[in-house]
Design goal:
The chain has a single domain (2-253), classed as Alpha/Beta hydrolase fold, catalytic domain (Rossmann fold, 3-Layer(aba) Sandwich). 43% of the residues lie in helices and 16% in strands. The chain has helices at 32-40, 65-75, 88-99, 121-135, 139-150, 157-175, 207-219, 235-238, 240-253; strands at residues 2-3, 9-12, 17-21, 44-48, 81-86, 104-110, 197-202, 223-228. Helix 7 links the parallel strand 7 and strand 8 (223-228). The relative contact order is 0.18. Keywords: Hydrolase. This is Hydrolase.
Length: 256
């Protein structure tokens, strides 16, 4: 089922609801390899494109990604959900779980970003290079920079092409949009999160994300941190069969 509202989204399956929040390198299509395994495991899957990604247009007024997600959950009748969130979507997942803790039964954070994190040298250099390429109008080179930075050694050419299409599309949508619209930043405290958490990081990722995961694993209740020795920043697309087994096992252990 495909729906239309502020966020483009789709729903599949029946059972306890799992909401999938994408990385800002991708859009909701990054979760294609997870949809059927989650449905087969007895879950109802909901995924959406954040504003300026995939099929969701850029905002024309101040907005909150976390509020958008909660509004979507209300629309699809999902009172309590497991949240699976990657990279930049991970920060949104943390905000949802902290501000609406009674609604989140489990939290999976994959290569997650974190509010207030001070970027290390490599991450800072990446951001500066990406900004320079986009300012010069070289979307192709900016896309290639993202692929070389974020995909690990097990990503094949088909995966590189798929991620490249998502990243390039996001750049095109965002560059054509209103750059003056600012997101609404609401302070939240991860100490307010009550859901059991699984933190997943990749050994081939930039070091920032392993540090963030280790820090959160020490601060969240009933948290476990798993480092995948084969993975880059996007393990769910790099080796989905391995990631899916880890994901379903975690979701089945709780009351997700």
């Amino acid at each position: 089922m495909v729906g239309a509202m502020t966020l483009a989204y789709d729903v599949a399956g029946s059972g306890p609801t799992v909401v999938l929040l994408h990385s800002t390198v991708c859009d909701r299509r990054m979760w294609d390899p997870q949809v059927q395994p989650l449905v087969d495991a007895g879950f109802r899957m909901v995924r959406a494109d954040f504003r300026g990604f995939g099929e969701t247009p850029m905002p024309d007024r101040p907005y909150s990604d976390a509020q958008d997600v909660v509004d979507l959950l209300d629309r699809v009748g999902a009172e309590r959900v497991a949240v699976v969130a990657a990279s930049g979507g991970g920060r949104v997942g943390q905000e949802v779980a902290a501000r609406w803790p009674a609604r989140v039964t489990a939290l999976v954070l994959v290569s997650t970003a974190a509010g207030g994190h001070e970027p290390g040298a490599e991450l800072r250099a990446f951001g500066e290079r990406e900004d320079a390429l986009l300012a010069a109008g070289d979307v192709e080179a900016a896309t290639e920079l993202n692929l070389s930075t974020w995909l690990g050694p097990h990503a094949d050419e088909a995966t590189r092409a798929r991620v490249g299409r998502m990243q390039r599309h996001a750049f095109e949508v965002q560059l054509a949009g209103d750059v003056d619209v600012e997101p609404i930043r609401t302070e939240f405290d991860v100490a307010d999160i009550t859901a059991p958490a699984l933190l997943v990081s990749g050994a081939h990722d930039l070091p920032d994300f392993g540090r963030i995961a280790a820090d959160l694993a020490g601060r969240l209740p009933r948290a476990r941190h798993v480092t995948l020795d084969w993975a880059g920043h996007l393990p769910s697309v790099e080796r989905p069969e391995v990631f899916n087994a880890l994901l379903v096992e975690f979701l089945r252990r709780g009351d997700a």
